Amino acid sequence: MSLMPIDPAMAQSFAALLLAHVLADFTFQTNAMVQHKRKPLVFMLHIGTVFVLSTLLLGGIWQVALVVSLAHLLIDGIKTWIIPAHLRNTLAAFLIDQAAHMITLVLAAAWWPGAITQGFWANIAPIALPPVILVAGFITTVTAGGYVVGMLTARYQTAADTSEAGLPDAGRLIGQLERSMIFLLVWIGEPTGVGFLIAAKSVLRLDTAKQGRSASEYVIIGTMASFAWALGTTYMARALLEIAVATP
């Protein structure tokens, strides 16, 4: 029994909304905004960014952007003011929050599937679509992946015996670089190169294993999580592109 085919127009509208979402959440939302999000002005600035970006990327179809922004307000409002502080910054809360946003974007795209083809991007939408999905996938893989890995490994950080201090923010940058390379390798159809990346990192991390079991396990958890997230999100981005460019 075959699955019901997905309307390419719906996938196109979803791709535009997805890029608006990841830009608003992971590019234009600074760490200072996250820390002060309980302040009404900061909170509404974020929601306003979602609305502006969604409207722009849909080509001026503000009705869909308004629905998405109101849903974003509700979801973020629950996370910001209702969820207890000790649960708010956990990986589970992050994943549930992002899943709720994705469901909202899917429903909005299903409600008005041809939105992007009716706006001022209609004539160039087929040309612009691959770069839109490419950028959205890259941000999700590299930037959002950093939050996921960081939250997953946070509880192990104090237990890991890493007596020798490294360069400031070097771990974060290494993670971004490795996820960027994985994204590139998978996107261009050379996933076997990921194996060489794993081997290279294993060699470079030999000294960490000498610091003790806790330190080596901490590195392994972070590395495997980073690789798994990068592979999963990159393949999903490629799948979305194939659906969006399919002919009806």
UniProtKB/TrEMBL annotation:
Q: Which UniProt keywords apply?
A: Membrane, Transmembrane, Transmembrane helix
Q: Which InterPro entries match?
A: Phage_phiKZ_Orf197
Transmembrane regions: 40-70, 91-112, 124-149, 182-200, 220-241
- What name does UniProt use for this protein? DUF3307 domain-containing protein
